[in-house]
Amino acid sequence: MAKSPGHQQDKNHKVEESPVAGTVKASVGGREVASTSDVIAVHETGCPVRYYFARTAVDGKLLQPSQTSSTCPFKGTASYYNLVVDGKTFKDAIWSYEDPYDEHVALKGRLAFYDDKLPEIKITAPA
Question: What digits encode the pLDDT tens for the residues 24-41?
Fold first, then answer.
């Protein structure tokens, strides 16, 4: 792991993590695909709140590794997964930081849903 170049270059950009008190659920078209109290909320400048679920909260049979990856200068390189629910594939619906920068090691291996880009995905979190 390494230090985040983003945090070193932009001291005003915030990426704040906090455990969520209570259960967070993810559903697709009304079908629950994840439910756990092991979730980290990430509040990042210019982004919606993201919920990073423990990998064990999502049924691995619903995940297909994608060829897509992206790099965040603050968190690291993300690997993507397609989500397959009831025969329907949601391309690049989930991502994970397998080797995040030192500042965000708590996110390692967790899964986040693209609920703001895929209207079928809904996240329900305690207020």
Answer: 999 999 999 999 999 999
Instruction: Quote the pTM value.
Output: 0.95
Q: How far apart are the first and last CA of the chain?
A: 34
Q: Which residues pair with 108 in a beta bridge?
A: 97
Residue count (the chain): 127
Range of the domain at 98: 5-124
Contact 114, 92 (CB under 8 A): yes
Please name the residues in contact with 33: beta carbons below 8 A apart, sequence gap of 6 or more.
26, 27, 58, 59, 62, 83, 85
| CATH number of 46's domain | 2.170.150.40
Using a 10 angstrom Cβ sphere, with 0-12 exposed, 13-18 middle and 19 or more buried, the burial of residue 23 is middle
Structural domain count, the chain = 1
